[in-house]
Write a structure and sequence with these properties.
With 58 residues, this protein is mainly β. The chain contains no helices and six strands.
């Protein structure tokens, strides 16, 4: 599991699949990478970050 950075807004999408990541905690603080080479939507517009950007957590 990957711990989101603060600007990742996957949780605002109510756990729906977006950019190769999905919300796996109630507040969306963690995302699960679904496919290498995709990205997660971040606040500030269309900018995307690679899957795995963030801190790995147990």
């Amino acid at each position: 599991m990957i711990r989101c950075l603060q600007d990742v807004v996957v949780w605002r999408l109510r756990g729906e699949l977006w950019g190769g990541a999905r919300c796996v905690e109630g507040h969306g603080r963690s995302v699960e990478a679904l496919a290498v080479g995709e990205g997660v939507l971040v606040s500030g517009g269309d900018r995307r970050l690679p899957v795995g950007w963030g801190r790995e957590v147990d």
